[in-house]
Design brief:
Blueprint (H helix, E strand, L loop, with lengths): L14 E3 L2 E3 L6 E3 L4 E3 L18 E4 L2 E4 L25 E6 L3 H5 L33 H10 L4 E7 L2 E9 L5 E9 L3 E3 L5 E2 L2 E8 L2 E7 L25 E3 L5 E3 L11 H6 L8 H10 L17 H18 L18 E6 L14 H6 L10
């Protein structure tokens, strides 16, 4: 709770003393449970009768997590792998976006938009490196696949944590390319990458119209044999107009107020969007809808199947909670470390549903497991 129960001064400006937060106005101090433990300004202290609202916290992966529900229904901490990270691997960043959290999150669950919003003219000039064949292509060739097939077919697989979905495209050499992303209830996404991915994009509501967008490394880098080659953005001409503070908070320079500095000449010559930064292109489309869009105005199509599925999961979970049903995917014995995205060109007869799972040979190789050894 921010305001001191004495006269209301903000405890944001309080002093951290002996595991207590002391108000600088009159010195009242409160422990981590919210109990008043000192009242030096009072000749007859009544500290035992004073307490403030306090929420339990857990530090992991460079983030302070908190539970803000009723104490009697507190769920266990969900470990996506951050508990085992050493300090040299921990990485977390945070940006604010001026729109509803679901609206912001939907960009990460929409594989179709990468064939349009993030395109640039130089993709056609990327040389064919021979990786347009069954197996793992280079990241550079992925750009060419997105451009070549702009109407992916989507398939959704329901899971205990939410779902995984595949964006299926046909490559220039007539192979089947899949990008598999995951959605973990309620606000966690894992976007596809080569050969598989574990980092999370999390969209936490600050209020109905403002979202804290986190990017969190949850597990050590796991890419046997350097599959995919150079990173995805090595061939892209996009800039990064951000300032990252020491606490991981990223300050934005491209915002709705300055029209994301859209360059109309660039939009006609090399950039499909006209916005210079990749992430700001996503901000542009989700924030330009307004703080919270009227969904009755939408006209959804076949490439929106993952968006539809996510919304139905959230609505059903909210209705269930109102009726006394526990929310999904909060049991203590669930292995959140097994949630992964993936990307690959399929061999004939290969099932995309295996990619990125504990049964995927490249995952087992990265984890140092024998074919018969259990992943956990």
């Amino acid at each position: 709770q921010e305001n001191c129960p004495h006269r209301g001064a903000s405890l944001y400006f309080g002093r951290n003393e002996d595991c207590a937060l002391r108000c600088v106005y009159h010195g009242w101090a409160f422990d981590a449970e919210g109990r008043c433990v000192d009242m030096p300004s009072e000749p007859r202290p009544f500290a035992e009768r004073i307490s403030i609202t306090a929420y339990p916290t857990h530090e992991s992966g460079g983030v302070v997590w908190t539970y803000m529900g009723p104490r009697e229904t507190m769920t266990p901490f969900r470990d996506f792998g951050t508990e085992a990270l050493g300090p040299e691997i921990v990485s977390a960043s945070r940006q604010e976006t001026a729109c509803n959290w679901v609206q912001a999150m939907e960009g990460n669950l929409d594989t179709a938009h990468i064939s349009h919003l993030h395109q640039f003219a130089g993709i056609d000039d990327i040389p064919d490196d021979g990786s347009d064949e069954p197996g793992y292509p280079s990241n550079a060739m992925s750009w060419k696949f997105w451009r070549h097939d702009r109407a992916p077919r989507l398939q959704v697989e329901d899971t205990w944590y939410g779902y995984r979905y595949a964006g299926i495209r046909t490559t220039p050499n007539d192979h089947t390319h899949v990008r598999i992303s995951a959605y973990c209830i309620p606000y966690s996404t894992i976007v596809a990458s080569i050969p598989f991915s574990t980092s999370h994009g999390m969209f936490v509501p600050m209020d109905d119209h403002t979202t804290a967008r986190y990017f969190i490394v949850t597990q050590p880098p796991q890419n046997p044999r350097g599959l995919g080659g150079e990173n995805l953005f090595a061939v892209a001409p996009f800039t990064t107009p951000f300032r990252t503070q020491r606490n991981g908070v990223i300050e934005r320079e491209l915002t709705l107020e300055n029209d994301y500095r859209i360059d109309r000449e660039a939009q006609q010559t090399w950039s499909f969007s006209g916005v210079s930064d990749f992430v700001s292109q996503d901000f542009m489309v989700t924030e330009s809808m307004g703080p919270i869009y009227d969904r009755t105005q939408e006209h959804l199509g076949t490439t929106d199947v993952s968006i539809i599925r996510m919304r139905s999961i959230l609505v059903n979970a909210a209705r269930g909670l109102a009726e006394g049903t526990p929310p999904p995917a909060v049991a203590p014995d669930l292995d959140y470390r097994s949630i992964r995205g993936a990307e690959k060109i399929l061999a004939p007869g290969e099932d995309w549903r295996v990619l990125g799972t504990d049964d995927d040979p490249v995952v087992r190789e990265a984890l140092g497991l024998s074919p018969a050894e259990p992943a956990s």
